[in-house]
Amino acid sequence: MRSTQFHNRPLPQTRRRGIKPQMHHALFFHGETLHLLPSGALYWPARETLAVSDLHLGKSERLARRGGTLLPPYETQATLEKLDRDLDHTAAETVICLGDSFDDLAAAEGIDEASRLWLTRLMAGRDWTWITGNHDPGPIDLGVTHRADLKLHPFTFRHIAKPEETAEISGHYHPKARLAGQSKPCFLADAQRLILPAYGIYTGGLRSHDAALTALLAKDALAILTGPRVLAIPMPR
Amino acid sequence: MTTLPPAFADWFAAKGWTLHPHQLDMLARSGDPATLLIAPTGGGKTLAGFLPTLAELGPNPAPGLHTLYVSPLKALTADIRRNLGTPIEGAGLKIRVEDRTGDTSYTQRRRQRADPPHILLTTPESLALLLSYEDAPRIFAGLQRVIIDEIHALAESKRGDQLVLQIARLQSLNPNLRRIGLSATVENPPALARFLSPRTTILEADPGPDPDISMLETDAPPPWSGGGGRYAIPAILNEVTRHKTTLIFHNTRAQAELFFHDLWLQNAQDLPIGIHHGSLSREQRERVEQAMTAGALRAVVCTGSLDLGIDWGDVDLVIQVGAPKNVKRLVQRIGRANHRYNAPSKALLVPANRFEVVECQAALDAVHAHTLDGEPRGPGPRDVLCQHILATACAGPFNADDLYAEVTTAGPYAHLTRPEFDACLDFTATGGYALKAYDRWQRLRQTHGKWHLRDPRAAALIRQNLGTIIDIETLKVRFRGHGAPLGEVEESFAATLTPGDTFLIGGQIVRYEGLREMTVEVSKTPGRDPKVAVFNGTKFATSTLLADRILQIFQQDSWPDLPTHTAQWLSLQREVSRLPDPHSLLLESFPHDGREHLVVYGFAGRNAQQTLGLLVTKQMESQGLAPLGFVATDYATLIWGLDPVTDPAPLFNLDTLKDGLDTWLSGNAVMKRTFRNTAMIAGLIERSHQGRRKTGRQATFSSDILYDTLRRYDPDHLLLQITREEALRGLIDFSRIETMLARVGENIDLIRRRRVTPLAAPLFFEPGRIPVHGEARDRLATAQAQALMEAAGLA
């Protein structure tokens, strides 16, 4: 178990190049090799870029604020730990958060001091882009690049996939699929788009059978399931 | 002595009826603060409970709620309303009797709040809702009596704990409130009396004649293993023809289905026989109930759904298929036959396999000796208390000292400490997390010494989640294309189906076609063996009382009471090896089919034997004994592996087992399921309401995530403490392993034989073998993914 004293954790002294051997799935997409990681993050080695989607930081706070139940207030910490680990493994120079990074704008502002410091530390020295989502449509007060989409040749990164787009990488749907009796968050990929699973800890999922996804993805799409072993299957529909 | 209204007494006399002595006693005791009446089925128990009410209300009562009647079943409240209506109308009394359950219409419920009837019939869940309204003090002003029917059934579950907390609340509102508990079968009357109130007096009616109960004799001996008792169908059909109406009880729905299917195949006379269990659609159940009341059925194959008190016509024989597992349940089921006072009930036991012959004999002995089983329940569960605190806050601001004082007057919470109470209060107010995150967004807040909801609008959400019954999420089953629902299956069961799979429901084999809008679509498939029928089956564990009696039977020199085939089997075991006894733990070890086997005769009940299997194989794994798998029954665990066990004592060291338990528990599915229930009751997560559940996108995420998060960041959190306590008591049943190890002490005896022993042989046919694996699941998934990709031409 990792220390919960997360804000005191020292920065890694040396960064390892490339990713540590782990069970990622290599996807060839528009001439590039992309690594789909067990955590649900996407790593693009050629550009040393890590992309994650739908962190939903501050979700428990938002639910409590709205008079709902008081969920364990640890999801921001848990999600950041996960992100820290992936950054550590990949030593990514560039980070793209594909939207819905915060559960709402007030959650972004209400994030506790320790988490804010931790996030700032992760961002330090990295080229970091926050793409807006439907949950966090406005600018976030973290002093970084913040935009509706990002073009990084040959890809377009955005929150919600556009049906007519090509070479697109997006999030939003929280896709999941079932294999051998277990349902897991998954990547969905066809020739034109790649949809990332939700990276945040407190996130539900949308089964790949859902009309929203079957309409969006081609017949030969794959679902790549996250978990200790990243496994690809034909997208269940 | 309080007297009945003359009009009522006259009407009663005109019918030619007289009151039973215990009914008169109830009238005489009408001033007592709490009375527990124990009377046999058919003894006019319910009327006895209402007599003081009728006497106090008189012919022309003033308006206002006088008596609250609470029963565990909705159907029972409707039944009582009819039964009570007859004498009240017959005698021309101006007493209003109404029921209020989840089925009561919205307008009716609103009217009841504004203008309550004299007698309100309800369930614990509806009462919880009623008490959570701000006008509860007005609704219940003047309440004189509360009657709890089938109190033994309620006392066994969290519904009962919730109910006594509510009654404590009602008592605070009406200090003069008097309580009556009604019960037929009680193993420990003083304990049930304490549950009702600390000031309870017990009234035991004449129990009536002993039941006429025996084991069914069949031409074919029962099989060596398995359940269902299908071998006995010819003999059972023969009994059905010889009686007017027969109830055929099974322990699980799946077994009832399989049995019913085969019964019809052999029903050459086309006797009208129906099936009734909780997985069938309400329409189907109602049809069977109506046919039965009308006397149109000769037999009904059923499960626990017919256990409790409703009168379904003229049943003159009860057949219990499979060992009853629990004497109390057996007695209750026997009571379903012949609902007439002072007439013996007739019942037959049908052991499903050779071992159950011994268990059935033990049960017969227990019934004749009038001993009942029942594991004592622990202290009142704290998740129920959390819900009660939230519900109390919905009704209005409260003072913590007063609420604590009130809660500890409820039997199950009598020993609740103040710190325990405060922890529950803190959980409801702030979440109770080690990280104090919700100072601003507390759920409950304290102002001028009183606790109240921070946001009064939260009350609606809390009310929606009241109750302690956790519905297993189920899906309706329908024929593809045309409408009538066949019944329901568990969602988790549906998830294991692939198109083409066959299973049994409503007595017919159906083929799974697919899932459509949260409905399982099936088609007819005549005459094939069903692949599966494992939905919703409660697996009862044999009670300690029965297990002890079985060990006693083993100690006899000979077995004249047992059928010859079973007596011979036991003799052979005694010759070849040894029979288990109460003072030691018998282990047998032998090679078979290229594997080493170890049998652990723990007699601790199925759940505990299963847990024992998991823990012992873990130990064996670490000792390098290469276990491959195990299977558990109520009596024994059979473990197989590559190497023989030669030194068993270290495997059964309590401390080592406990350590193993801690590690194993943490990631265990049982714990996660228990956590889900606890979190739902305590108000951490919302129930998904049937019908409102969204398809596709789940607005909520799995409670497993919350469980994992809490374990990692807040391992001492209240809900994890509760979860652990519950899991150990429930499915994991570690306490029975502890009891068993305490019972045998140092006497762990290993007997080595060269081949399978007679007593162990049936274990080899037992279903539910559990593989011991590390990477197996991953390998399976990898292989399956590979196959899918190849099939799609993508690999």
Kindly describe this structure:
The complex is a heterodimer of chains A (237) and B (795). Chain A is α/β, with parallel strands linked by helices. Chain A has a single domain (23-234), classed as Purple Acid Phosphatase, chain A, domain 2 (4-Layer Sandwich), CATH 3.60.21. Helix content of chain A is 19%, strand content 28%. Chain A is built from five helices and 16 strands. Chain A has helices at 59-65, 75-90, 105-109, 113-123, 211-216, and strands at 25-29, 32-36, 42-44, 49-52, 94-97, 127-131, 145-147, 149-152, 155-158, 168-170, 175-179, 182-189, 193-195, 206-207, 222-225, 231-234. In chain A, strands 8, 9, 10, 11, 12, 13, 14, 15 and 16 form a nine-stranded mixed beta sheet that branches. A seven-stranded mixed beta sheet of chain A has the order 1-2-3-4-5-6-7, covered by helices on one side. In chain A, strand 2 (32-36) and strand 3 (42-44) form a beta hairpin. The longest helix of chain A is centred in the middle third of the chain and has 16 residues, at 75-90. Chain A starts with 24 loop residues before the first strand and ends with a strand. In chain A, 49% of the residues are buried. Residues 1-21 of chain A have low confidence and may be disordered. Chain B is α/β, with parallel strands linked by helices and 795 residues long. Chain B has five domains: 6-204, P-loop containing nucleotide triphosphate hydrolases (Rossmann fold), CATH 3.40.50; 212-368, P-loop containing nucleotide triphosphate hydrolases (Rossmann fold), CATH 3.40.50; 396-464, no CATH class; 474-524, no CATH class; 577-777, no CATH class. Chain B is built from 29 helices and 26 strands. In chain B, the strands form five sheets. A seven-stranded parallel beta sheet of chain B has the order 3-4-2-5-6-1-7, with helices on both faces. In chain B, helix 16 packs parallel to helix 25 (669-682), helix 23 (606-622) crosses helix 24 (654-666) and helix 23 (606-622) crosses helix 28. Mean pLDDT of chain B is 85; it is low at 533-538 and 689-699.
